[in-house]
Batch of 4 targets.
Target 1
Amino acid sequence: MSIPTEQYAQIFKSNNDPIEYKKVPVPKPGPDEVLINIKYTGVCHTDLHAWKGDWPLDTKQNLIGGHEGAGVVVAVGELVEDVKVGDHAGIKWLNGSCGLCEFCMASDEPLCQKALLSGYTVDGSFQQYAIGKATHVARIPKEIPLDAIAPILCAGLTVYKALKESNARAGQTVAVTGAGGGLGSLTVQYAKAMGFRVIAIDTGSEKQEMCLNVLGAEEFVDFAKDDVIAKVKSLTGGLGAHAVILLAVSEKPFQEATEYCRSRGTVVCVGLPAKARVSAEVFPTVVRMITIKGSYVGNRLDTQEAIDFFARGLIKAPFKVAKLSELPQVFKLMEEGKIAGRYVLDTSK
């Protein structure tokens, strides 16, 4: 395939600097890497954190963000054998890992201390051509639309992993905070596909309509109008949800969750509001045997499982398409909480 020497990308010099849409060199893959012509890339709340620098993790300088990039492989390194030019592949949050530490050897490579993070510690998918380690790029079946699969590469994978970590069983109730957002809209669908009953927690008529009539949640709790704790309990016979998936970008839901999680239930923290803390009263947490845990992104097997759910038609990620050049406007909408579902950027524009 013909590969240009220059491409368009969204880049910023350091945190909070202006995001510049400009031409940059096309990178060349190393021996164990592949070069993917990114066709579409999702916009995740993590990308906003990367730009703002409000996480306790330093970003690369002169950073090209993004980590939900779906496209076509156009070049491979000399050591790469199982990925071919012309294959469809995706850039994920986890760009690479050492492969040698105890976490990598136990298939917990997201916990690798030397992990490479797309759009954070290495350049990501807000560009037309992006690099990924061959062992970590997502394998995408060619019959899957690349715009629709992009949000699965982080949002879908992340929430699928969180649902597995919740230890909930088919038929049990899972409460999802931030259910109408990019992560939440996928969580509701994965939860339904896994056999869970879903209570969606969010606010606004648009998100209520989407959660109940498009995504398939059984109940909707509007946190701006309802007493969340009382409402969830009333919907579950006074016992609470078997699991709570916390996707919120503010701190308050993290303080409330154990109060509407039933005994022996699990609270799974996924969202990462800046400088927030999780707190719970010790006595009820102990005597009700509630588990509070964090869930990060999935491993390589989780990735393929999450994609398989989508390939079988069980997941339909709601998304809107914008131009790569419109990333700052998408960030503004994200900050204002005005995005229902996910934005996907067309890198050809």
Target 2
Amino acid sequence: MTEPRFDVLGMGNAIVDILARAEDDFLVRQNLVKGTMRLVDLEESNRLYSVIGPAIEASGGSAGNTVAGVASLGGRCVFVGKVAADELGRVYTHDIRSIGARFDVAPLEGGLPTARCVILITPDGERTMNTYLGACHLLGPEDVDAEVVAATAITYFEGFLWDAPSARDAFFKAAKIAHGAGRKVSLTLSDPFCVDRFRGEFLSMVRDGTIDILFANEVEVKSLYQTSSFSTALDALKADCKLAAVTVGAEGSFVVSSDGIVQVPATTVERVIDTTGAGDLYAAGFLYALSRGLDLVTAAELGALAGGEVISHIGPRPATSLADLARQNGFVLPDAVTA
């Protein structure tokens, strides 16, 4: 097997985030469930935009955020997602390429506009997401570059892709190519409501080996196994999955593998400003470390550092160099192995 040219390929929804602060009573008035993600149509997205306060626009999307984190650590990365040939699509394309990621998917000409997510951030830093999928819903197998996937150490997918049948087909195509080239495949469960919609498919992929590395938070993994007991869910995950990382907020994360279950502490954050992207950046640190041959505990520690950085400011992507931050905290970041 040849050495990979890329560390991580992230496939997911290319979404421009619209971030605004909101009080809890505003969420109640809008019939929103705090801390969750819901899919909305363009009309509802525009309505919410019209009633929120001052907002910040930032390129986001779960896998896109993870790719941004890998790039900030110095990783070689690729993003696969669909935007429209409109202003938001041009903004997203510029942003993902400007961080050093490869992004070659042709934009959608005509039809649906670029996806956007209205994210409401309450004073405790929790985010409530309202996502209009638009063009990103039309990602398909034809957007998968087999040569690039085969040349990537880890191909990473977000669970939100399962809301679009064509994107699901793109996932299976890429996963087959990755495994055929001897590479790893990873999935993040994304959201408990996403798990509720596709529990059977997610469990099947974990159990049959389609997924080599699974990411989840405590709520998602309990939803996956339909239990109120976190320890029961972890034990079930250990039996089913080759490798998993489960985040538990301020308590850190649990790394689940055939060697056992290990808890790794979180990074201390003086003030939580916005939890948008926390899990995405944890995955970035973890995947970067694995792609460079670091051990699992170090991977979880680097994930915690990246996640801690992103929750200390508004926005879903790093505001400072994660590579510099990692070195300042004693991490040794290995050079990439090139073919």
Target 3
Amino acid sequence: MGSRPGLGCALGACCFLAVFCSFAVLFVLPSRITNDRPIIGILVQHTDKVLQKFGQFYIAASYVKFLESAGARVVPIRLNRSDEEYDKIFKSINGILYPGGGVSLETSEFSRVARIFYNKALEANDNGDYFPVWGTCLGHQLLSYLTSGENLLTRTDTNNIALQMNFTQVAKDSRMFQGFPDYLLKEMASEPVTSHFHHWSLSVQNFTNNKKLQKFYKILTTNFHNVDFISTMEAYRYPIYGVQWHPEKNPFEWNITKSIPHSRPAVQVTFFTADFLVNEARKSNHRFLSKEEETDALIYNFTPVFIGKHYSFEQAYFFD
């Protein structure tokens, strides 16, 4: 009996599909595998005179909670360590966050160490090794300095103020904001849901006049206070992001003298932002060499101190 018309073709198609699927498993699916145990480093800063009794360096606990809320763990990155140690840390973590603060962009140890990780991140990403870099407030300003080689900040006196965001035309399709729901983007554009605590800013004019910045970053949001300044930016070719505002404060800082919005949309901004950053870190496959090394490096080895009675942060981690 002869085979039914088309049966051979159908069997051939099935065989081809089976082979194709096998290749898909080998070559396509691994690229989609994500790291579900992301660890993000936070660069520590020198404490001021008020806090030096607790330790020489600190990290505000709100940054840690910000990352933990989206499923990441945190490793504090100390200052004044060797290049070999920084290289080891870089190969062990899945991203880095430069927090806000008040140190020099040009001469501080904070800036020097930030540059080390920034350069490592550029090299890694150029070689297909995904590694995100995030800057908040001072960290955002520092990214502009590390990229341009110049301090281009302008005095804006935008300290202790909440603002709505002026989105650029490219913002909605950006990596950072494309996952935000439309209703939240509208809230961000119409209500003061982002907190600002900075005296200096990167003006739109200075950005536009600098070819290195123009080539490297696209502007996602701006604000106006004395001058137009950049409040959110992301790199074109790299997973590098800067926000002049403080997404970590809305759910976790409660000083009543500070202009920190706590509305439902404001808190949602925090969590969508954290979710984005942590998902970026999930794309990195860096690992500690052993479980013991990982455990010893985590911030869980330190206890946050309540300082809210006398300081702008509710809690902070301290290090010597």
Target 4
Amino acid sequence: MNLAETLGLSPRPYRILTIDGGGVRGIIPVLWIERLERYLNGPVHAHCDLIAGTSIGAILGCGFAMGMTATQAREMWLNGAHVAFSKPHSMKERGRRIAARAGLMAKYESAGLEELLRSIFHDCRMGDLTPPTLALSYDIQSLQVHVFSSAKEEHKSLPVWEVCRASTAAPLFWDPHLMAVDDTGVKHPMADGGMTANNPVVLAISESVSHAKGTGKAIQLDNVVVASFGTGAPPEGHSQIPKTIFGHGSMIMRALMTGATGTDHVTARTMLPARNYWRFQTSIAGRLAPLDQTENIDELQAVSTATFPDGFFLLNRQLV
């Protein structure tokens, strides 16, 4: 029993913020977090003990942990999405789109995405992030989720831009990112963490408990508070990813990403008391489902603004 419990006081909650992957749809949680920051009267990272994200969620989460406000994140993604998902301007780029339709190569060159990530994070390293931050990727060599953690010694020196590049390397969109994931120097081909954990909430809860054990501090699940932000839920059956002329790759990716998000939400809901788990999500039209259609951003913002979820005020009480 700790001192707080001895005195009959409740210990301070261990507060986790998680953000799903979702490409351009990342603008939805950004606007919600921007509103949450108004309730908190300050940046969200100052009210969190752990931040976790997948793909665009990793970019946003690392941005917040670097000191970015939600307003700054909104401006970053409104401009950055057009860089990451740039339209073809040359015969070479148009040829790439044709090859992508056949499933022969990625739809986008990596240069635009890497340019964007370098401009956001510069020389920032994982160890510079506060609070501890997780970014999920998928090692296609070992066929398992890889959790980059700013709290792990072997990850502290990794460039944040490169970790986010690994987390956003969605198959059919970009080529896998070849990088050393620890101090062994061995390079692994890394792909989007959304392949198996588009919603990072369960891994975030697990990592928080594991990290606490390593420090000798016990974290009880009853004391964990999670704010989990989705990027919009399209109608069942609507594709979020590029379709190949054969369709097989698209169907597999859709099943992996959709199944992972739904399963993790259900699991987290059973792990934590209802009062401690806050899932912010909204339904979106099928036409807004694609992850790379930048022309949808204005409508996605309108959907986000019109459907602010209930619970921000009550959540605010648990975060401050």
